[in-house]
Design a protein that fits this description.
Two copies of one chain form a homodimer.
Chain A (H helix, E strand, L loop, with lengths): L10 H12 L4 E3 L6 E3 L8 E8 L10 E2 L4 E7 L5 H11 L5 E6 L2 H17 L4 E6 L19 H14 L4 H13 L1 E7 L19 E4 L10 E4 L3 H16 L6 E8 L5 H17 L3 E8 L9 E9 L1 H8 L3 E2 L5
Parallel strand pairs in A: 3-5, 3-6, 6-7, 11-12
Antiparallel strand pairs in A: 1-2, 2-5, 4-14, 8-9, 8-13, 9-10, 11-13
Helix pairs in contact in A: 2-3, 4-5, 4-8, 6-7
C-alpha cells in the first residue's frame, strides 16, 4: 500500500487538521474534530448538515460554506460518523430555524442520522428533517444499503438546497426541494482499479488488467457486471443508457452533466468523458446546459468515474447558479 | 494501460472539446484546437499566454480566464506546442498592449516560444516578453531541461502576474514581477507510482512496491534519489528541507504553501501533507498565510505530490487574493 500517511490510525485527524488550517477563512473544526462547520452562521437560516465516512473527499467537508452546507460530520474511512457527532453538529449550527440532514442511503449513515434526529427531538426545542439521497441506478440494493445507494448526485442536492436555504426557505420546503432534486438526479459509475482502504492495506477487490467494474459503488462495492475494458464512448453509452432508461426525461429537458472522478483518474480523461457523454445526451434529446467536472465524490485512490444527470427547471437552474463559497466548489 | 479513452491519437482533441463545452462561459477553443482563449478580452490589457505539453491538466488551459491567462496552447501529451500555435494565440488575444509569455523551463517549450516570439517581432507591430519558470529545486539540470525545471510554482506566477495585468500594468513591469515571483518560489515533488504515457502504453519508469522517487519531474523524469517509502512527515521534511535551504527565507516572512497532487493521490492525503508541511514551515520561522491544495499541475495518472513555497510580500499577497475566474481556480 502506497499512501502519503504517517500511520493508519491518524489519517483522518491529520487530514482534518490540514483541511481546517488551509480553509480557516471558511470553516472551523469542532471540538475533538467531531464536525466541520461554517466559520460564520446566518441566524434565522435553516441549517444544512451532512456527513458520512471519509475517503470520499472533498465530499462532505469540502462543501461546507456559504450557499451549501452549514456542517459536515466526518466518520473514519468508509465508516459512518456517530450520532453523538451529529447531535453536536446540530447544536453548533442550528440558530433556531431548524436543521435539514442530507444523508446518503447507506445503512450505517441512515441509522445514525435517524438516531441523532431522535435524540435532538427528544431533547426538545429543535426541528429536524431528513432528505435521503439514492441516485445510483446501478443496483436496486447492495451490500451497504437497503435500496439504491446515494453517490455523486448528493452534491447536486447539497448545492441546490444550500442555495435555497440562503433565500430563507423553511425546513419543510427545503426538504421537499431536496427530495425533488434527488428524484430528478441519477448516477452510475465505473471502476478501472480498486481502492485500497488504509486499515486493510490491500485492494478491496481484484480486477484484471483488461477489466472494469460497471456500476461500482463508492466503497468499491460490486456493481452490475464485470466486463472487458471498453472505449470511453462505450462506457458513456452503458452508464447513460441505464441513467436515461430510469429517468425517462421528456425531450428538450435541460440538464446538468456531472462527470465525477473517483480520484485516481486524471482531469484530461474526465473532460474526454464530458465530450463523450454530452454527445450521447444531446442525441437523446436532452439540452445539457450546466456542467461540473472533477473528483468531487471520490473512493480513496480508485481509478474510474461516475456520470450524473440531473434534470433542471428554471428554479433549480437558478439555484445551481447561485453563488457558493466552499473549499471545493466556488462560483 | 487502463484509461478512459477512445484511442491514443484523439485523446487531446476529445478532451479539449469536452473542456471547451463544459466551460463555454469562460473560454473558447481556437481554430483547429490550436489554443484556448478567454471568451471576452479586455482591450488595453497586456495579454498573458502560456502553454506546454498536455497531461498536466488543469495546467494551463484550466487557468485561462479573468485574473489569470488570456490564452493557453496545449501540445500533445508531454510534447511542446508548436510555434505556429503560439503565434496564432498571440494574434487572437493581443489587443495592442503586448504579450507576456509564461514558459516552463523545458527545452522544447523554451525553443518553440522563442521562435514564436521572433516570428511575431519580425512580423512587426507587437511587443512580446517572456518569463521563464524554474522553481524545481530537485535537480540542477535534467533530461528535459537545461537548468532547473518549471513545475507547480508556475501557477503561482500565472495567478499573481495575471492579477497585476488586470490592474493595467505594462509589459515590462509584468515581466519583472513574474521573474520576482519565480525567484521567490521553490518546489520539489515525490512520486509513489510512475505515470503511463498513452502512446507508450506502459509506465515511464519502474518503482518497487516499497519505493518512492524523491524530486521526480512532472514527466516522470528522475529526481534526486530513489528511496524507501517514508512517512508523510519524513517526506515533507525532505522536500521542505531542500526548498528552504535554497530559498533561505528571513524569519517571519509570510508565505503561500501549495500542496499539489500529481493526480493519482487523493485529496485526503494532500490535506494530510498540508498538515505535515505547515508544522515544519512554522517550525522554521515562516508564517504560512495562504494555502492552495489540490491536483493542479499533474503528471497524467502519477501518484504523489509536490510542495511549493512562495514567499509573499504585501503586494504579491494582495495580487494572490485578487478575484480569479477560471475553470480550475475561482475566488
Amino acid at each position: 500500500m502506497k499512501k502519503l500517511i504517517n500511520g493508519v490510525e491518524t489519517i483522518l485527524d491529520e487530514s482534518l487538521d490540514g483541511f481546517a488550517a488551509a480553509h480557516a477563512d471558511i470553516v472551523t473544526l469542532g471540538e475533538g474534530r467531531r464536525f466541520v462547520r461554517r466559520r460564520t452562521l446566518s441566524p434565522g437560516k435553516v441549517a444544512l448538515i451532512s456527513g458520512g465516512g471519509s475517503g470520499h473527499e472533498p465530499l462532505h467537508v469540502g462543501f461546507v460554506g456559504r450557499g451549501m452546507l452549514d456542517a459536515a460530520c466526518p466518520g473514519q474511512v468508509f465508516t459512518s460518523p456517530t450520532p453523538d457527532q451529529m447531535v453536536e453538529a446540530i447544536a453548533a449550527v442550528d440558530t433556531g430555524a431548524g436543521c435539514l440532514l442530507i444523508v446518503k442511503n447507506y445503512e450505517g449513515d441512515v441509522m445514525n442520522f435517524e438516531m441523532a434526529g431522535e435524540m435532538v427531538r427528544e431533547a426538545g426545542g429543535r426541528q429536524v428533517a431528513t432528505v435521503l439521497t439514492d441516485d445510483d441506478v446501478a443496483v436496486p440494493t447492495s451490500t451497504w444499503s437497503a435500496g439504491r445507494r446515494g453517490v455523486a448526485g448528493t452534491l447536486v442536492v447539497e448545492k441546490i438546497v444550500g442555495a435555497a436555504a440562503e433565500q430563507s426557505l423553511g425546513l419543510a420546503e427545503l426538504a421537499a426541494l431536496g427530495r425533488q432534486v434527488n428524484a430528478r438526479t441519477r448516477s452510475m459509475g465505473v471502476a478501472l482499479t480498486s481502492c485500497t482502504v488504509p486499515a486493510a492495506g490491500k485492494p478491496t477487490f481484484e480486477l484484471g488488467a483488461d477489466e472494469m467494474e460497471l456500476g461500482v459503488g463508492i466503497h468499491g462495492e460490486p456493481g452490475r457486471k464485470r466486463a472487458k475494458l471498453a472505449t470511453a464512448d462505450a462506457i458513456a453509452e452503458a452508464l447513460l443508457g441505464a441513467i436515461i432508461a430510469d429517468l425517462a426525461p421528456i425531450t428538450g429537458t435541460e440538464c446538468l452533466l456531472l462527470v465525477n472522478g473517483f480520484s485516481g483518474t486524471p482531469l484530461m480523461e474526465l473532460y474526454l468523458m464530458v465530450n463523450a457523454a454530452r454527445r450521447i445526451l444531446i442525441g437523446r434529446g436532452l439540452r445539457v446546459t450546466r456542467y461540473l467536472t472533477g473528483s468531487y465524490v471520490t473512493s480513496l485512490d480508485m481509478a474510474g468515474c461516475s456520470l450524473t444527470v440531473s434534470l433542471l427547471d428554471e428554479r433549480t437552474q437558478a439555484l445551481w447558479d447561485a453563488p457558493v463559497t466552499t473549499a471545493a466548489l466556488c462560483w
